[in-house]
Amino acid sequence: MSHQTVIVLDFGGQYNQLIARRVRECGVYCEVKPYTTPLEQLKAMEPIGFIFTGGPNSVYDEKAPHVDPAIFSLGVPVLGICYGCQLMAHTLGGQVTAAQEDTAREYGKTETYYDTTCKLFKGLPEQGISWMSHGDYMAKVPEGFALTAHTDACPNVAIADEARGFYGVQYHPEVNHTQHGVDMIRNFLYEVCGAVGDWTMGDYKNTAIAAIREKVGDGKVLLALSGGVDSSVAAALLAEAVGKQLTCVFVDHGLMRLNEGDEVEAAFARWDINFVRVDAETRFLLKLAGEAEPERKRKIIGEEFIRVFEEEAKKIGRVDYLVQGTIYPDVIESGAGDAAVIKSHHNVGGLPDYVDFKEIIEPLRLLFKDEVRQLGRELGLPEYLVSRQPFPGPGLAIRIIGDITKEKADTLREADAIYREEIAAAGEDKNINQYFAVLTNTRSVGVMGDGRTYDYTLALRAVTTSDFMTADWARIPYDVLDKVSTRIVNEVKGINRIVYDITSKPPATIEWE
Ligand code: XMP
Question: What amino acid positions are annotated as catalytic residues?
Answer without folding.
Answer: 82, 172, 174
